[in-house]
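Sequence, please.
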């Protein structure tokens, strides 16, 4: 595929020539349409990859995403940097892992202005930048609006601080139409549109006609509200199978609703004649435990159930493919940054994310929510360490045990993973000075937010990143 960078330079030259000629003969300078593709990046919050049909789920939860995947590039092994929104999304936006940015968890950090976010790169390179977010952690309060000219927040932090949740009947479809209209309204330049939909995140409260699609009943639906889910999350498993079945039904129905919203956005792009001019990306920020490892919801484990997310990218002119290379959200951020900068091969590069990385490289995931766990992962092995003590929590053979159920002793590969992991933790800890003050929450508000699962009871006690015991003098 030809580089659009070259075409862009030619376009700019022609535009300049026309403007010069017009300065002596035209009353109105003509507009020359920018030939670069738009980017529409859609996040379904807490969508675990293996609950999408295109990732071999048995229920028909995501017909729109599946049809989209049939003509796009589907990445099969995408591991989020964190099992909760703020750290995962900031890794995507900064195109860097927490070991590089020094960012920590939810109420523990705000993205500093010194970091360059992908929306800033887009804006600097002439893209219109628009965002629509339904998650209170993807808001201006946490510094994630940097670079966006328009940033619509459905669930502002003020609502969160009052201990309230988003209204499940909220008109997400109407908001999507509105933001797309704004983005598409400026025809003089391409747009970068970021859409962060809350579904299937809790509360699992699917509206009609999705409620009941996979067997939930009026009697079982209260089980999908946040408070009972959080109570189960805090208590830990094992859970009764009937209860879990109901919860999974409601999660899947909520996911089907999120998928329908995504389908609606695709249809709107088509109607506006923009589908062939737009790179469309569907992903999630993190997964969701649904009884896996005796947990439900997310935030406090680094098993794949809370980390593995879908990633499907459609680039106009590129054929469908399935890629097995293991990548993270920061890799997607880097690919987008290269695209916005107009680097050679960056368009096609979005269907080959991670191909420039060493084979078998190690991926890292972090949580300081309650557990302070950090995971190092290759395609074959996974090591989980408690960052406060440097103690090994689990070591898994992913080829023989993809469910990470049986921990074994460290072999040579495990020891190498441990050494690399401790180095990352030291780098992470050494960057804490870059973190700006955290969200201040009084006791009563904290109690409300804990009940809704938006902060964790122990998180507020953390004032700095943990340091490994093995080297207290580390930077
Ligand atoms: Zn999230």
């Amino acid at each position: 595929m030809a580089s659009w960078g070259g075409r862009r330079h030619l376009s700019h030259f022609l535009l300049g020539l026309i403007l010069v000629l017009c300065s002596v003969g035209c009353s109105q300078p003509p507009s020359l349409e920018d030939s670069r593709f738009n980017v529409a990046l859609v996040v379904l919050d807490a969508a675990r990859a293996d609950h999408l049909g295109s990732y071999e789920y048995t229920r028909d939860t995501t017909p729109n995403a599946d049809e989209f995947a049939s003509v796009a590039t589907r990445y099969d092994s995408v591991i989020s940097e964190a099992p909760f929104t703020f750290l995962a999304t900031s890794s995507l936006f900064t195109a860097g892992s927490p070991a590089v940015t020094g960012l920590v968890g939810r109420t523990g950090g705000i993205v500093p202005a010194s970091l360059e976010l992908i929306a800033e790169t887009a804006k600097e390179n002439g893209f219109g930048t628009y965002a629509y977010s339904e998650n209170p952690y993807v808001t201006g309060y946490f510094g994630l609006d940097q670079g966006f000219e328009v940033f619509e927040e459905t669930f502002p932090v003020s609502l969160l601080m009052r201990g309230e949740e988003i209204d499940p009947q909220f008109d997400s479809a109407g908001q999507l139409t509105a933001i797309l209209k704004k983005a598409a309204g400026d025809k003089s330049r391409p747009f970068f549109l970021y859409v962060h939909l809350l579904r299937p995140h809790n509360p699992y409260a699917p509206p009609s006609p999705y409620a009941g699609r996979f067997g939930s009943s009026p009697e079982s639906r209260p089980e999908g509200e946040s408070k009972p889910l959080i109570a189960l999350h805090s208590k830990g498993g094992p859970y009764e199978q009937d209860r879990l079945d109901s919860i999974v039904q409601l999660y899947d129905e909520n996911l089907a609703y999120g998928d329908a919203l995504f389908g609606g956005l695709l249809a709107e792009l088509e109607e506006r004649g923009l589908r062939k001019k737009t790179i469309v990306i569907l992903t999630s920020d993190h997964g969701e435990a649904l009884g896996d490892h005796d947990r439900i919801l997310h935030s406090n484990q680094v098993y794949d159930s809370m980390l593995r997310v879908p990633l499907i990218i459609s680039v106009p002119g590129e054929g469908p493919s399935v890629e097995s290379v293991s990548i993270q959200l920061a890799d997607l951020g880097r690919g987008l940054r290269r695209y916005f900068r107009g680097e050679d091969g960056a368009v096609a590069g979005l269907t080959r994310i991670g191909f420039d990385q060493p084979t078998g490289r190690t991926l890292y995931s972090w949580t300081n929510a309650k557990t302070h766990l950090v995971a190092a992962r290759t395609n074959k092995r996974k090591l989980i360490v408690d960052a406060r003590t440097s103690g090994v929590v689990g070591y898994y053979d992913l080829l023989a045990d993809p469910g990470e159920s049986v921990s074994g002793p460290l072999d040579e590969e495990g020891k190498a993973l441990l050494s690399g992991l401790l180095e990352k933790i030291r780098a992470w800890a050494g960057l804490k000075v870059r973190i700006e003050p955290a969200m201040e929450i009084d006791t009563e508000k904290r109690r409300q937010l804990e009940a809704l699962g938006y902060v964790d009871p122990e998180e507020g006690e953390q004032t700095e990143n943990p340091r490994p015991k093995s080297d207290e003098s580390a930077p």
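Confidence is low (pLDDT under 50) at residues 1-31, 459-475.
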